[in-house]
Write a structure and sequence with these properties.
This is Transmembrane protein 131. By secondary structure, the protein is α+β, with helices and mostly antiparallel strands. The chain has one domain. The protein has 2 helices and 2 strands, in the order αββα. A two-stranded antiparallel sheet has the order 1-2. Strand 1 and strand 2 form a beta hairpin. The protein is elongated, with a radius of gyration of 22 Å.
Length: about 140
Amino acid sequence: QPGVAMQEDMWDADWDSHQSLFRAWTGIKEGSGHRLSAVFEVNTDLQKNIVSKITAELSWPSVLSSPRHLKFPLTNTNCSSEEEITLENPADVPVYVQFVPLALYSNPSVFVDKLVSRFNLSKVAKIDLRTLEFQVYRNSEK
């Protein structure tokens, strides 16, 4: 058990927040509220009654450039593995991303079970729920 842990109810708060937002999104999508259409007419000096139809579709936001599973190779003791993740901000406002080791949650196995269920993942038995070791490096490329 790690010496540093988040408050007991923190994973509940994270999960409840996600579920609430996802339920709202699902309701919008089921009611086709994520698709917007408009028809407009343009009149110019050169041509009259130009009718155009535009359509836009909203999608569940994601900062991952493409969905994929991260797989780390077997790594010798006292060595490390690296995996590159590209995050892109699709919004015109700042987005804050927080990486939290599962070991900081008070009950990490329950949280993993919820993630597996929500994202229809096959349960991965090799997740180390005790490690606090990972580092994030900033990519200086634009």
